[in-house]
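Exercise 7. Given the components listed, write out the predicted structure of the assembled complex. Treat all entries as one system.
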Amino acid sequence: MSDMTHSTATAKSPREHMLAEAFLMLWRDKFAFLSALFLLLVVFAAFFGPSLLTDQALQMNLRGRNAPPFELERGWIYFLGADNLGRSLLARLVIGSRYTLMIAGSAVVLALVAGTILGLVAGYRQGRIATIILRAADILMSFPSLLLALIVLFVLAPSVANVVLVLALSRVPVYLRTCRAEVLEIRERQFVKAAKVLGASHARIVFLHILPNVVPTLLTLATLEFAAVMLSESSLSFLGLGVQAPAVTWGLMVADGRGYLASAWWLSFWPGVTISLTAISANLMANWIRTATDPAQRWRLEKRKRA
Amino acid sequence: MRSYFRQRTIQSVISLFGLVVLVFFLARLTGNPVDLLLPVDTPQSVREEFAARHGFDQPLLVQFGRYLLDLLQLDFGESLRDGRPALQMVLQAFPTTLLLSFWAMLISLVIAIVTGSIAAWRPGGVFDRIASLISLAGASIPNFWIAIVGVLVFSVWLRALPTSGTGTPWHWIMPVTVLFVRPCGVLTQVVRSSMIDALASPYVKTARARGVRSRVVIFGHALRNAMLPVVTVAGDQAAGMVNGAVIAETVFGFPGIGKLMIDSIMFRDFAVIQAAVMVTAVAIFVLNILIDLAYALLDPRVRHG
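Answer.
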């Protein structure tokens, strides 16, 4: 860790070089490049959109109820049409992006942290604790995630915090198993044994020697998981068991528009498009990261030698 | 093999017991189970009578013991909606979901194996790129949105397919489609990568060198070995079918176990939810054992190991 902080101060150029190289590798995979752009747009919307568009998203306009899309006479904000209360769909999509990303993002981070800690424990300390942790993970994994969420949200109220908790809970085993498998392999390596011989404490070995080697794999897994968690959240919202109005997520918008399918298809259509595009982009990015960080696959993205 | 199955069954029973405990204590977590089981506007006298009749005034451990005894006798209680035994309602809805999942799984396996194998023949080729993108999209597009766009296009605009019910084969087209897209996308990717590995292996090279025809190499030699990871993922996807079935059955008014669950949640009909969850869990454990059997059939090392 110490030379990381050191290198930022003295050797700036290798870091810039790495960034440039990463950008070139991204540019070479056109699908990954487009998805990165789209994800940036969504993140930008989630961060800055609400402060810019909250008024438009809440402003009801009874004359513009279910206004059709692609008509500019009401102004660009109504370009995607308006909902059953005459609120701009574009503005609501932007507001919805914050909740959608926030819920999926928090659930992924929560599951990542909990799964990593449990995985480190289960991998490093074999014995009864490890067995109990793994059995609990088996029970969770053997059961469809949506059903688990349905039961929990039936019992607890469907608030934002509970939705995050349920989504995180159902994904913890994924990180736990991956982390444990990695730890089992790493703890047998020479440098861990060396640290042990030198008298390092368990905490020092786990956090300083093992954890840094596990993190890259788990982070790649987390990007892949993001799309899955977002889709689960959307399904819950769609079924009416996710977040409740006035909070708005894309899944909830699809559900709200269902009743107007015959008269105003755009109510359900657009939020579905944004969910799909975000999930596809996240998956493409995850594939790209996997390729770019895998030494055996990396050449696909590097500059081809001219024959 | 036999000891393996005994071990597997014991594991399943432990997992089921874990689930039973989870459901029981989750239900008691909210405080008074009477509030959970009865509608909000129930008068106080009825509540007290209900609590006494079902033993909710007893200590928690006594309640848990009684609950286990009832479960062992397959008594899940009665539906709040129409007073029928909860288990009967669930078993009535179950075949519909099973049939729906069966068709969806069959179609997605066939499409995934054919597409994935052809894509793996020339990795990076035109067919592979198109197939990869479509399968990725299939795995990423939310199924409830596919359902809604399907209703919009085929029912509202074209008036070709019915929106709900189970009467004719036409009624099954959209629910099966909604259910198969995601597993199909995931499985295609697995078949593809697994086939690329298999096709690069020495025995395939030998077969090709001997002049065996491409079709025989792909489907005869490579596919059989490439199927192992596919079977594992297909098992996971089949278990996850319930997730999709909840969505498809809700949108299309299909009288399966998914719709039953959602309706029961809306009515706060706890006995039915509990029965549905237990029946689904048992079905998934049976499925897992079947998957292991398929694995043993495909891989002699598992059979004799």
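Discussion: Residues 21 and 196 of chain A are 37 Å apart (CA to CA). The interface with chain B takes residues 31, 135-136, 138-139, 142-147, 150-152, 154-156, 227, 231, 234-235, 238-241, 251, 254-255, 257-258, 261-262, 265, 268-269, 272, 275-276, 279-280, 282-284, 287 of chain A (CB under 8 Å).
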